[in-house]
Amino acid sequence: MTQDVDVSLLTGWGSERPIVDEILSGFAPRRRGSKEFALRHRVLLVQSSSGVPIDIALAAMPFEERAIQRSSDYAIGGGESIVTCSAEDLIVFKVFAGRAQDWLDVEGIVTRQEHRLDRRQIREELGPLLELKEDPDASRRLEALFRGP
Predict the structure, then answer these.
(1) 31, CA 20 to 30 Å: which among 13, 111, 146, 148?
(2) Range of the domain at 17
(3) Same domain (yes/no): 91, 45
(4) 128-144, pLDDT tens digit by residue?
């Protein structure tokens, strides 16, 4: 569990600059050249007024759009809720990112969700992304997690 916020904002292609400018007018950047970094790497790194890191992905790919369409409200208490992606989509995002912490998170999701996961959907969404990334090992690693210990 990390102490940050990850957001996907559907910007499409070509309209990112004014959106990034608008966000930076209300949030402090976490690095020098945040705007240029965001436009190059499609993630804007800012922080809340209380110092919480916020990673805003500038979503444009068809998978990202579908993940946003599949998102749902999650009650956090006190009558409040936040919009979250499905467990399946979170696995796809994390396997694609492929960092050590992401794989730990995927293992936890697979363990907690076990038989409730739509593995077909995960495979269908992840396959083309891993082909683009040229990372067949990630698919094998995920299948090993699906099989369990």
Answers:
(1) 13
(2) 5-60
(3) no
(4) 999 998 988 999 999 99
The reply to whether 74 falls in a domain is: no
Number of domains comprising the chain: 2
Establish if 69 belongs to a structural domain. no
CA 58/CA 32 separation, integer angstroms: 18
Structural contact between residues 44 and 93, judged by C-beta atoms closer than 8 angstroms = no
Strands of 28-29's sheet in order across? 5-10, 53-59, 43-47, 28-29
Query: pLDDT: is 115 or 120 the higher one?
Result: 120
| Cβ–Cβ under 8 Å, residues 46 and 28 | yes
R_g over Cα of the chain: 16
Instruction: Note the pTM of the prediction, 2 decimals.
Output: 0.84
